[in-house]
Amino acid sequence: MLPPAGGLAAVSLPAAMLLANASALVLVAWGCRRLVRTGGWWPPLAAVAAGWSAVALAALPVGTVGAALLPSTPGPRLYGATYLLIGPWEEAAKLAALVLLLLPTEPVRRPQDGLVAALLLGAGFGMAENLVYVGAAPEPFMLALLRALVPGHLIVAPFAALGLHAALQRRERALSIWPGLALGWLAAALAHGAFDHGALVLASYMAPPEVKEDTVLHALGLTPAGVRALPLGPTLAATLLLAACTAGAVATIARLLRDRPAAVGLPVLEAGA
Question: What are phi and psi of 244, to 5 degrees?
């Protein structure tokens, strides 16, 4: 016999939360195991906390204010919302949390640690965001499954991680870290915009025709029908390019994490010396 509807909802919502954060929790476990060996528990915990804090910065109504300045036609409005508002603003919030909470206290001691810390920051941001979206969804388990299979913030985190890695290689001078951070932010913002654009378009195409409104699209002044009228080709091309770039970034990070400092050769003493 099935449990009462209220009891089922009480069980399914925590299960949906756990499912949505499954990939992030795996990444956090791996990152903690790696960073604890070099700097104790503070680096990984600070990185995850920075990600959670960045959600508070991203929640400021900049997107709502900026949406009023976008063109009214669906195509330019959607591109502007994803590539010029949501992506850059959320990645700027992560960068601000990184600079305010991580770099001043120096929990990352090597460029390799910076790679892991930036990935953990993205995981923390994604976990906090999942609590908001999944908790408010009418079908939380389905949304949790989608966010677990396609974790957007984990997909774009490698770009910011590579930027932090480049910045930490030049940390002897304070100003020299900013070009690397800026490039990482720009790459992550573009990747974030491509991901959100693709997700909104594909979700609109997959939605039943009787669905007239979507919460996110409504906040942007769009409707599923208006998005479905847009050509699908550019979105698919951008999504495939994002997948290829993410795979390249992950492969680069894996190679950097495998690298070890070259052994220093000892001088050979000649006989009788």
Answer: -65, -45
In which residue are the tokens 């036609």 written?
A: 73
Residue with tokens 């600070």, as numbered in its chain: 46
Buried b (16+ CB within 10 A) or exposed e, 160-199: bbbbbbbbbeeeeeeeebeebbebbbebbbbbbbbbbbbb
* Cα distance between residue 51 and residue 242, in whole Å: 22
> How many whole angstroms separate alpha carbon 24 and alpha carbon 262?
33
Q: Which DSSP string corresponds to 190-209? A: HHHHHHHHHHHHHHHHHS-T
Is the model's pLDDT at 248 over the cut of 90?
yes
Q: pLDDT tens digits, residue range 153-176? A: 999 999 999 998 998 887 777 677
* Closest to 68 in 3D by CA, of 55, 56, 85, 88: 85
